[in-house]
UniProtKB/TrEMBL annotation, chain A:
An annotated GO cellular component: plasma membrane
Protein name in UniProt: Sugar ABC transporter permease
Entry's transmembrane regions: 37-62, 99-125, 137-159, 171-191, 212-234, 272-293
PANTHER family: ABC TRANSPORTER PERMEASE PROTEIN MG189-RELATED, ABC TRANSPORTER PERMEASE PROTEIN MG189-RELATED-RELATED
Entry-linked Pfam families: BPD_transp_1 (PF00528)
Biological-process GO terms, alphabetical: transmembrane transport
UniProt-listed CDD domains: TM_PBP2 (cd06261)
Localisation: Cell membrane
InterPro entries attached to this UniProt entry: MetI-like, MetI-like_sf
Superkingdom per UniProt: Bacteria
Coiled coil: none
Record keywords: Cell membrane, Membrane, Transmembrane, Transmembrane helix, Transport
Membrane topology: Multi-pass membrane protein
Automatic annotation (TrEMBL), chain B:
Keyword field: Cell membrane, Membrane, Transmembrane, Transmembrane helix, Transport
Highest taxon in the source lineage: Bacteria
Biological process terms in GO annotation: transmembrane transport
Residue stretches making up the ABC transmembrane type-1 domain: 67-297
Protein name: Sugar ABC transporter permease
Main location class: membrane
Subcellular location, record wording: Cell membrane
Positions of transmembrane segments: 7-29, 71-95, 116-137, 166-187, 229-248, 276-298
Family according to the record: Belongs to the binding-protein-dependent transport system permease family.
PANTHER family cross-referenced by the UniProt entry: ABC TRANSPORTER PERMEASE PROTEIN (PTHR30193), DIACETYLCHITOBIOSE UPTAKE SYSTEM PERMEASE PROTEIN NGCF (PTHR30193:SF41)
GO cellular component: plasma membrane
Length: 307, 308
């Protein structure tokens, strides 16, 4: 029984003829050797790419524990000792702690805002008929394909005139606005799939529209909110262009921006080991979160593309 | 469901729509308007200059270079990324096939491991990835050249980002590195939903792997491939290429403008050179290129949708 189960059958197809499954074990082994040459080849290339993905990341982790001279002298040698001081230097002197805090504030605020506002708009667009519904929907969707950079120049002055330049809340509002197109697109499709009967029953029982939304529909939409939430979290956490333009105050920098500035600035005099420590510091939480919530992250990120 | 319906609709839409209109739609409209003015961005005064900016753009050598590089990004990046991703996804899902016995198709061993690892770059910020590779490409102390020395290729020590002929390819390679994993996972999901009897039928007819791929897998996956192509193209023309070029190449824009792309040129004109109006003109050109790209891909890729 074990041997017939071992090769992972991909799409669990019940339609596969039963006779095929009952092939005796020895014959199966013979079949396995036949395909071996091709398997070695394909496997080799798969392994090669896996190495190419992991190696730069490992190199960065390794480098973050080395001192400056060995970083430049022998980039691939193992650290002679683990220089944890790189990490503490990056955390305090290079302001990584501030960048982390700023990023958490900005992403926390905009994630909540995006989900609340996005689901409100999506719900109305998905469930109510009113003149202009289609127009507003396509207005939101259109934002997904237009290059942000075109809007950035006037956006800078809009934000500046409102006195929101270089402020955390200003950045939050802009993040929300630019996350809405995908969020509305995704959640509109999601709300359309939810059964109408539950909401109607609640309405008949005397619940107002907004109460129906917050107490009945939002809990029902939880899987969709999680998917789109993960998508937005990663997008906003990794955002680089918007803060680069709208957030030039050194104290307000977010992680990505702060690291790039560290690398460029002359003020940070050649402390490459500290910089690598900062780089790894910024990478690890996201990678760790991905490994833990692997299935949800993949679902969240590919959800939109699969429709 | 009619009671208070419109009040509710307005109440729920006002805030999201207002925010979106103010920070996204309004700047877009403004930028098209500004492209016909001589606004510097530094002073509030400006006047209409008609098509002057557009005329200037057509004579601007750097603009043409940036357009050329952007187009290369939009063509090469999807081609390489989707090609690699299709190959990997096919190997992962169908590649481990045997001729006799067992399930008709199966992936190579450890397929879920590959999917997890390949996806790593996708969760990292492109800015951080760019920074990491900028160090790796360093000619003297970078990981790449050091690796080449390590395997005995002392003679092959390119300047990478410092070499005008190589810089653009180096930057593109980083984008490929960071986007392949996403598409492997995406295509894997698509391939997993292709019924196994189709593969079985192909197998019975004596199809080899290449035939199976081109005759069964690819046609059934076409919709996903096409939307992936558009998505990648928009990404390559937009924010992602800005991040890699701005962070990785000197200038930024590379030696002898060898890596400058349209998004970067918009940014530099607006926020470095104080030529906001001209920047929006290039932005409009970028918009046209993006829309044209999407239209061309959709048109070239149009096929009858296969139901299965």
């Amino acid at each position: 029984m074990k041997t017939t189960e071992s090769p992972a059958p991909l799409p669990a197809e019940s339609g596969v003829p039963v006779t095929k499954v009952d092939v005796p074990a020895p014959q199966q082994r013979a079949g396995r050797t036949e395909g071996k040459v091709l398997n070695v080849f394909s496997h080799g290339i798969l392994v090669l790419w896996a190495v190419m993905v992991v190696l730069p990341l490992l190199w960065a982790v390794m480098t973050s524990f080395k001192d400056d001279s060995s970083i430049f002298g022998s980039p691939w040698s193992l650290p002679d000792e683990l220089h944890f001081d790189n990490w503490s230097r990056a955390w305090t002197e290079a302001n990584m702690s501030d960048y982390f805090l700023n990023t958490v504030l900005v992403v926390g605020g905009s994630l909540v805002g995006t989900l609340v506002l996005g689901s409100m708009a999506a719900y109305v667009l998905a469930r109510f008929d009113f003149p202009g519904n289609r127009f507003i929907y396509y207005l939101f969707i259109g934002g997904m394909s237009f290059p942000i950079m075109l809007a950035l120049v006037p956006l800078f002055y809009v934000v500046n005139n409102m006195g929101l330049l270089n402020t955390i809340h200003g950045l939050i509002l802009v993040y929300i606005a630019y996350s809405l197109p995908f969020t509305v697109f995704f959640l509109t499709a999601f709300f359309r799939t939810l059964p109408t009967s539950v909401a109607e029953a609640a309405f008949v029982d005397g619940a107002s529209h907004s109460r129906t939304f917050f107490q009945i529909m939002l809990p029902m939409a939880k899987p969709g909110l999680i998917s789109v939430g993960i998508f937005n979290f990663l997008g906003q956490w990794n955002q680089y262009v918007l803060p680069t333009v709208l957030n030039t105050d050194p104290d307000k920098r977010v992680l990505t921006q702060g690291l790039v500035q560290l690398a460029v600035s002359q003020g940070y005099k050649g402390d490459w080991s500290g910089l690598f420590a900062g780089l790894v510091m910024a990478m690890l939480p996201v990678l760790a979160a991905y490994i833990v919530f692997q299935r949800q992250v993949v679902q969240g990120l590919t959800a939109g593309a699969l429709k | 469901m009619q009671h208070g319906k419109y009040r509710f609709i307005v109440g729920f839409l006002a805030l999201p729509l207002g925010l979106y209109a103010l920070f996204v739609v309004w700047p877009f409209i403004q930028s098209i308007y500004y492209s016909f003015t001589d606004w510097t961005g530094l002073s509030p005064e400006f006047k209409m200059v008609g098509l002057d900016n557009y005329r200037r753009m057509l004579d601007d050598e750097i603009f043409w270079k940036s357009l050329q590089h952007s187009l290369m990004f939009a063509v090469v990046l999807p081609l390489v990324t989707i090609g690699l991703a299709l190959f990997f996804a096919f190997m992962i899902n169908v590649g481990g096939r045997r001729r006799k016995g067992g399930p008709v198709i199966s992936g190579v061993r450890g397929s879920s491991f590959y999917k997890i690892v390949y996806f790593f770059p996708q969760v990292l910020s492109i800015a951080i990835v760019a920074l990491l590779f900028a160090f790796a490409y360093n000619p003297d102390s970078g990981a790449v050249n050091s690796l080449l020395r390590g395997v005995g290729l002392d003679g092959v020590q390119p300047l990478w980002l410092g070499d005008p002929d190589l810089a653009l390819w180096c930057v593109m390679a980083v984008l490929v590195w960071s986007t392949v994993g996403f598409f492997v996972v995406l295509f894997s999901a698509g391939m997993a939903s292709i019924p196994a009897d189709l593969y079985e039928a192909a197998l019975l007819d004596g199809a080899n792997r290449a035939t199976t791929f081109f005759r069964v897998t690819l046609p059934l996956l076409w919709d996903t491939v096409q939307s992936g192509w558009v998505y990648l193209g928009i990404l390559a023309l937009g924010a992602e290429s800005f991040a890699v070029v701005q962070i990785m190449t000197t200038g930024p824009g590379g030696p002898d403008y060898s890596t400058t792309v349209m998004v970067l040129y918009v940014y530099q004109k607006a926020f470095r050179d104080g030529q906001a109006a001209y920047a929006t003109t290039i932005g409009v050109a970028l918009l046209i290129v993006t829309l044209a790209f999407a239209a061309v891909v959709m048109r070239l890729g149009r096929r009858e949708r296969l139901e299965y």
